[in-house]
Amino acid sequence: MIIKNLEVKHETIPLxxxxxxxxxxxxxxxxxxxxxxxxxxxxxRGAAAPTYVITGDxxxxxxxxxxxxxxxxxxxxxxxxxxxxxxSVQSCCVxxxxxxxxxxxxxxxxxxxxxxxxxxxxxGGKKTLxxxxxxxxxxxxxxxxxxxxxxxDGFQVLKIKVGANPELDIERIQKIHEAIPSYIxxxxxxxxxxxxxxxxxxxxxxxxxxxxxxxxxxxVPSYDLDGLKFVTNRVSTLIMADxxxxxxKDALKLVAxxxxxxxxxxxxxxxxxxxxxxxxxxxxxxxxxCMIGSMMEPCFSVGAAAHFAAAHPNIHxxxxxxxLWLDGDLDVLTYxxxxxxxxxxxxxxDVQTTFQGIKKDAT
Length: 363
Ligand SMILES: [Mg+2]
Description:
metal-binding; alpha/beta; TIM Barrel; Enolase-like, domain 1; three-stranded antiparallel sheet; 2 domains; EC 5.1.1.-; 38% helix; eight-stranded parallel sheet
């Protein structure tokens, strides 16, 4: 079944409230959609979003990679050479992981539509998924208000962004801890905002206060792998790599060297579902658990990530709330309180009808 065409579109989607981390403040996303068409008319969709400060990919670079080397690598080939096509997407250019992820998702969507099964069925799993809700970094008071609102909306795990001004981080978590039920788990994400010794000091203080912290993401700069290991070896709290993990090669190094306890896999960083699968399997082989996460990105690519997470046995944590931040139409996922419900239609799915978004006055 020959791939006859590849088209690319993009649109700007505003966020309901600004998304603030130690790295950036976003008020909208650029959503890139890629559509491949097979000779029998079946289409496969993929999506991506640029994140300059994380992947280095821009809107222009994603469009250029998709319309250039990626299109040239797959047009005219048979989609039934599925694994070879996925490999060609990865090898046709260096970098450009967001564009590669969009193409990889579109191929997975087309192939599972061709064999008429939902993507998670093709991948071989149907785990129940629930997501944390992210609380952007802000004043302790605003973050506490947002945390209470998320708990009232049914979220049982909160992902708290810290690291923007480390001197406030203990106060931020103390105030949130006091304002919400103690059974609510907290995931902290410093987005590279701490230095290694400072991270150990902050985490030890948090441990002494008995906050219900499930793990802490990326305490130190992405390049500082020695710092990451320094922190991991000195605290009881589990430490997760995010910005330090892009590729399969990164995963091999991180898990073999015991740099961290956990990995955060995102399709935009690794280049799609096939690479994500390899990373999760490498981690599994060394006893390292994984989370599926996402950038601020379109619902469709988060949906693809959710199908992957439902199928891979080593994805134990789910961070899939990005679509709830978008002030636009829902696509392939349904949210009910903290539950994430996959489409049962072939491929990644089609547009769903019910939607529970975050409240615009939550922060
Ligand atoms: Mg992170």
